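Discrete fold record:
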Amino acid sequence: MRKLLLSLLIVTSSLIGQGQEVRTPAASLKSSVEQMVGLTDIEFVYSRPNKKGREIFGALVPYGQVWRTGANENTTIKFGDDIEIGGKSLPKGKYALYTIPNKDTWEVIFYSDSENWGTPKEWNESKVALKTTVPVKKINQVVETFTIGINDLSDNSGHLQFVWDQTLVDVRFDVPTQKIANESINGILANPKADANAYYASANYFLQSNGDMKKALNWINRAIDLKQGDSPYWYFRVKSQIQAKLGDIKGAIESAEKSLEGAQKEGNKDYIKMNTDSIKEWKKIL
């Protein structure tokens, strides 16, 4: 019996050793974030330490020293297009994201060697692709877990933000949305087979981005022509707004009335209200 029990114990121990391993959570959890800003893809990967009642900046994270901007491996960030920070260009690609925290300011560094564990053993200034200094903002609430985010988005810009404890650091960056969109528009509309949707999208983009309204009007008219009398009411909504920007209030009202008629047939309450409000406002101008 003893021999049998001993044999079973040995077999069981062997199976546990081969098939199982202890699973415990990491002290600093890894996070991967993807964000589109305008037409530019941005991705960053970092590990997120917790405060755990400790004093952070000036203590756990010393002032005046290069920080990996997180825990474990160095934090990395990847841009799908060239961007600008403070008027300085940063080529598209992947970077290690280092910072040097100080009491009133942080230096934020985009380092071309992104394969280090933590900070580089030997710092190479020639690998600094861009460096910027930004002020520290104090916030009222205590943020337990270190957080990097891309917030306050527009078509042309975003804000890279670092938040931990009661510290917020904000880096504005600009993306080349207008350049990319214009190249796309010019390429597609150069094709004689460009359809109504391409002309509509181009006109709407110029309307929203305050582009050349005369071009926008030509494009929306071309979109309407290509639909051959069956234009959606949202086409006429865009046309009315373009005409209003060009000072053609009478034409804007006529286009808005066509949009209103189509919206009423489809039962689109949002467009009914938008057109009704615009017509009322523009009639005051006449």
In short: The chain is about 35% helix and 30% strand. The beta strands are 29-37, 40-48, 76-79, 83-85, 88-90, 93-101, 105-111, 128-151, 157-174.
